[in-house]
Amino acid sequence: MVKSEVERGCQPVASLIDDFNITLDTRHGPKVFPYDSCFGPNASQDQIFEDTKRLIQSAVDGYNVCIFAYGQTGSGKTYTMYGTKEKPGITPRAIEEVYHVLSQMESFCDIKVTCFMVELYKDTLTDLLVGKENKKPTQNLKIKEDLNGNVYIQNVTVRIVRNMRLIFFIDKTSIHKRRFG
Fold first, then answer.
1. What is the pLDDT of residues 26-61, one digit of tens each?
2. Taking the model in full, what pTM does it have?
3. Domain range summary for the chain, segments of one domain joined by +
């Protein structure tokens, strides 16, 4: 719960049953929601990444993967995805893991890494790699499916990423670049 809820004496309505199920107390009784993984409020950045790390290999193998951080404002989504310099979140760790996996393949194949970064907030897609001075109208970003069933975002900014030296992280106001090594 966020600080204001605690101060008002609110009680939690969601509880973790196990690593795969959450119960939500509703006026019609409890309702169970199953997920691939569930993490409680005391889960560490290390625990969350270890559980999601396998998705990096799946992405390199050609599968579409998605990590969906869902929750109310102030619940820790940004912290979980981006973390801090001392406790990096899923995004910087995933980028590092992508390059670790690719380094094991570079002797027998040509590799090109591209990326895009979008935010979905209140049914609006925002291209996070466009500078404020060049903002594309968000209505131009369209989620599409090609003839092979691959999902893509039409009109999104795609950047070639040559190495992991530039890693993006987001604070409360904007995207920043952080240089490694």
1. 999 999 999 888 888 888 999 999 988 999 999 888
2. 0.69
3. 1-38, 41-110
Burial 8-17 (b: 16+ CB within 10 A, else e): eeeeeeeeee
Which residues are CB-contacts of 141 (< 8 A; sequence separation ≥ 6)? 118, 125, 126, 127, 153, 154, 155, 156
Decide: 137 and 72 in contact? Cβ < 8 Å. no
Q: Are 77 and 62 in contact (CB under 8 A)?
A: no
Q: Which residue type is seen at 38? A: C
pLDDT at 136 over 80: no
- Beta partners for 31? 24
* Residue 153 token pair: 């975002």
- Show the tokens assigned to 3: 């600080």
Q: What residues contact residue 134 under an 8 Å CB cut-off, 6+ apart? A: none
pLDDT tens digits, 62-101: 887 888 777 777 888 888 888 888 899 998 898 889 888 8
Contact indicator for 98, 60 with CB cutoff of 8 Å: yes
